[in-house]
Amino acid sequence: MALIDEISVFLIEQGMTRTRFGRLAVSDQRLIDDMQRGRDLSAPMEMRVRGFMQNYRAGLIANIPAKSEPRPRRKVKEEKLLLPHNEKQREESLGNAQEILFRNMMTKGCSALLEAVLRELSTIQRRNRQSVA
Fold it and tell me: What is the model's pTM?
């Protein structure tokens, strides 16, 4: 049986991923992918791989837990927009809303959408001014 076939059987038996196997066996997470693409292993490297599988099956190598889940990325704090009932304060709030949207959208890199939202807010402000007058 070829070494790559032995490794495949080992991975199924142990429920281990290819990258984890390569990392634990020879500190090369691309080992199996490279072997499938035709990489030939030197005799000492092949002995290390076979020795790792033998020792792991015999329980001489502790079952090292897989890495924990990656930490979630930090979310950009979005500010809430509450419009007051007073017309003057509402107009000021809409101006503040433009600033809030601008800051939030720029951090997310959505400049085209930002421009459309700002145009819509300007239209709302004009309508509010007309309804007050």
Answer: 0.48
